[in-house]
Amino acid sequence: MRMKSMLVLFFSITTPFGIALGIGLSNLYSENSPTSLIVVGLLNACSAGLLNYMALVDLLAFDFMGTKLQNNMKLQSWAYHAVLLGAGGMSIMAIWA
Predict the structure, then answer these.
(1) Which domain holds residue 19?
(2) Which is deepest, 35, 38, 42, 60, by most CB within 10 Å?
């Protein structure tokens, strides 16, 4: 219970702190300068990498390592195609984001 309350406390403190920090820093830099574009690009790449890791390793690995998919090659093939189709669709949507 103590650990959960500590995590709730840290989350409730860091979220508003991050928002305030972002608002404060947005007034200090030019959005079109090369440095700010590189920083924003690196931060976006890091968050995209973390989301991909969470989706592929933590979420999909459990499903793909289950006995239902391991014993049925046709279902496993459909599952791989669905994952690739979904990743491709998200990549295409990222063009407009």
Answers:
(1) 1-30
(2) 60
Q: In angstroms, rounded to a whole number, what is the distance separating the alpha carbons of residues 67 and 65?
A: 7
Q: What is the DSSP string of 1-59?
A: -HHHHHHHHHHHHHHHHHHHHHHHHHTTS-TTSHHHHHHHHHHHHHHHHHHHHIIIIII
Instruction: Tell me if 70 is assigned to some domain.
Output: no
For the stretch 52-79, pLDDT in tens is 888 888 878 888 888 888 888 999 999 9
CA 63, CA 58: separation in Å to the nearest integer? 10
Q: What domain count does the chain have? A: 1
Whether 87 is in a domain gets the answer no
Q: How many Å apart are CA 81 and CA 65, to the nearest integer?
A: 16
